[in-house]
């Protein structure tokens, strides 16, 4: 889907995360892999290199699971505090890429990846107050008619007679 | 002539899939599914496969896919199950992760067993006939996925340093303590941050903050709902009050588990401050209470009297600006409120009367110091600051 079709969202954090304390939003992560098929080779190496344990030890707030599944492609399932579940297909990925996906999920909030209206959000965007037509003491659209600022396109009947009178007076004098 | 659809149905792959679908309707775990009304097949099943054509698929396979999709829709939705029935679940690991996530793992006297009891509601501990000591072991053994590991957590769990007698069996006593503690924290915080707001309005805000809906929202986002035992944790069956009680029990436990009193107070306060009170951030504080329309002007007079303006000083409403005569489309009136020839507030409206009402609201915001331009709330307060502010 192109960016024009996707709905736009405003920048936000679940439970105002980071205002007072930062909580890792990733609750649990499951690495599903096959013990035999070649597309799980990267996942198996990731486990055997010790990177999985390193991630688990560095992130005690995340429950890490391994789920061997026969004849299925490898998948990373990340569950977040806001209830969302994200799946990353790591089919035939090298071990380094699997490691990067793990650490990427750790930093996510679980919100859907949608385009933003703006890269920042403030509930107080104006410091001095938003401008209104009345900010500098103007009254708009009021006045008595006829107003001398208005230029008529054609003279009125009264003005025509007055012009005729002036011409006639000039001729007579 | 046999139709292609009947040929399709007799295809072994199709029959295999039908068997898989039928098997999925059986409950996966020893768990009673909520009674679901039998589905009547709709006259026309929505077919998302219509219009999608895989160029590589032959026509018979395309029709088979459509048929399989239709059968899957007719089979009905998956039964709702709690998260713990799947194989990638270990209660011990989840409690440990939750303890670290909530920042409680470093507290003296806090252990997984303690957290387990905090999130245990009374029904289960009696119904299963399970003693409180072995609740974690029982569940893990029942799951059959107990793995050997060298970490000291499992050892500590089995032979807990804290004697079993001192730990409560469930959170029944923690819940009311926690609720009271949360209400006290919220009341104190708002009294400190909004000293000019009348107390009845602050109480409205506190009751909204400490309502079941608010607390269960927080508990859900902390991941407590899945960890509860003794209750049905399926989202449709879990009442809001139970989730709210879980969070309350957690706050109480943070205070009570620490042998050091001040450390416990601080830990409990931080839970309330960081997860519950931050809901006030980025929200209009005036939305957290309602003032009746009839009550606004008397309240303004009272607030002005409290601010030092004598009661007999008249309030003057003056038209400051007007755009077009009164009409439903273009009119915009600006009315200003003056007292003792000093400007207090201004308001806009489609009619002069509306602008006047708005003016009064703005004046109340100015007097209560809840306007947009006020300083942001301080969410880094410690418990010592909070306690000292009231003295």
UniProtKB/TrEMBL annotation, chain A:
Ranges for domain Ribosomal protein/NADH dehydrogenase: 35-109
Cellular compartment(s): Mitochondrion
UniProt KW keywords: Mitochondrion, Ribonucleoprotein, Ribosomal protein
InterPro entries given in the database record: Ribosomal_mL43 (IPR039927), Ribosomal_mL43/mS25/NADH_DH (IPR007741), Thioredoxin-like_sf (IPR036249)
Alphabetical GO biological process terms: mitochondrial translation
Presence of the UniProt keyword Transferase in the record: no
Taxonomy, superkingdom: Eukaryota
UniProt GO molecular function: structural constituent of ribosome
Gene3D superfamilies (alphabetical): Glutaredoxin
Membership in a protein family: Belongs to the mitochondrion-specific ribosomal protein mL43 family.
Protein name per Swiss-Prot or TrEMBL: Large ribosomal subunit protein mL43
TrEMBL record, chain B:
Xref: InterPro entries: Ribosomal_mL44_DSRM_metazoa, RM44_endonuclase, RNase_III_sf
Keywords per UniProt: Mitochondrion, Ribonucleoprotein, Ribosomal protein, Transit peptide
Coiled-coil regions listed: none
Residue span, Large ribosomal subunit protein mL44 dsRNA binding domain: 300-382
Recorded superkingdom: Eukaryota
One BP term from GO: RNA processing
Major site of localization recorded for this protein: mitochondrion
Gene3D superfamilies registered for this protein in UniProt: 3.30.160.20, Ribonuclease III domain (1.10.1520.10)
Region (Disordered): 147-170
Family: Belongs to the ribonuclease III family. Mitochondrion-specific ribosomal protein mL44 subfamily.
Name of the protein in question: Large ribosomal subunit protein mL44
Lineage, uppermost ranks: Eukaryota, Metazoa, Spiralia, Lophotrochozoa, Platyhelminthes
């Amino acid at each position: 889907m192109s960016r024009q079709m996707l709905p736009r969202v405003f920048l936000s954090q679940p439970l105002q995360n980071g205002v007072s304390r930062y909580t890792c939003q990733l609750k649990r992560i499951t690495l599903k892999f096959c013990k035999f098929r070649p597309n799980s080779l990267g996942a198996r190496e990731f486990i055997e290199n010790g990177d999985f344990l390193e991630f688990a030890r560095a992130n005690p707030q995340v429950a890490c699971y391994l789920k061997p599944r026969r004849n299925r492609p490898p998948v990373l399932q990340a569950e977040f505090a806001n209830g969302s579940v994200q799946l990353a297909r790591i089919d035939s990925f090298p071990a380094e890429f699997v490691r990067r996906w793990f650490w990427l999920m750790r930093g996510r909030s679980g919100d859907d990846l949608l385009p933003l209206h703006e890269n920042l959000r403030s509930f107080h965007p104006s410091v001095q107050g938003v401008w209104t037509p009345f900010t500098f003491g103007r009254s708009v659209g009021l006045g008595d008619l006829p107003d001398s600022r208005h230029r008529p396109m054609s003279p009125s009947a009264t003005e025509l007679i007055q012009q005729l009178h002036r011409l006639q007076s000039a001729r007579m004098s | 002539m046999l139709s292609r659809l009947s040929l399709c149905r007799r295809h072994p792959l199709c029959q295999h899939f039908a068997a898989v679908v039928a098997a999925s309707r059986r409950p996966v775990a020893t768990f009673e599914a909520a009674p679901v009304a039998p589905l009547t097949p709709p006259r026309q099943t929505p077919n998302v496969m219509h219009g999608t054509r895989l160029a590589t698929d032959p026509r018979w396979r395309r029709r088979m896919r459509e048929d399989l999709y239709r059968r899957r829709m007719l089979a009905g939705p998956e039964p709702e199950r709690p998260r713990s029935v799947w194989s990638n679940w270990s209660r011990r690991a989840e409690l440990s992760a939750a303890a670290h996530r909530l920042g409680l793992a470093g507290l003296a006297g806090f252990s997984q067993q303690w957290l387990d009891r905090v999130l245990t509601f009374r029904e289960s501990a009696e119904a299963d006939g399970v003693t409180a000591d072995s609740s974690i072991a029982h569940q893990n053994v029942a799951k059959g996925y107990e793995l050997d590991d060298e970490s000291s957590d499992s050892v500590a769990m089995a032979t807990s340093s804290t004697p079993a007698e001192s730990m409560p069996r469930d959170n029944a006593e923690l819940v009311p303590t926690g609720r009271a503690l949360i209400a006290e924290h919220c009341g104190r915080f708002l009294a400190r941050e909004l000293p000019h707001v009348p107390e009845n309005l602050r109480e409205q805000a506190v009751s909204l903050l400490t309502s079941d809906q608010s607390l269960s929202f927080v508990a859900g986002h902390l991941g407590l709902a899945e960890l509860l035992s003794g209750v049905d944790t399926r989202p449709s069956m879990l009442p809001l009050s139970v989730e709210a009680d879980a969070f309350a029990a957690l706050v109480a436990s943070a205070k009570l588990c620490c042998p050091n009193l001040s450390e416990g107070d601080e830990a409990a306060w931080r839970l309330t401050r960081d997860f519950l009170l931050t809901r006030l951030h980025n929200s209009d504080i005036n939305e957290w209470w309602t003032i009746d329309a009839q009550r606004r002007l008397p309240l303004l007079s009272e607030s002005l009297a409290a601010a030092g303006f004598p009661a007999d000083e008249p309030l003057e409403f003056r038209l400051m600006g007007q755009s077009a005569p009164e009409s439903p489309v273009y009119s915009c009136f600006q009315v200003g409120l003056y007292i003792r020839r000093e400007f207090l507030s201004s308001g806009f409206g489609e009619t002069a009367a509306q602008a006047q009402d708005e003016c009064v609201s703005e004046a109340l915001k100015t007097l209560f110091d809840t306007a947009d331009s006020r300083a942001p709330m301080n969410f880094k307060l410690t418990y010592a600051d909070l306690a000292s502010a009231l003295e």
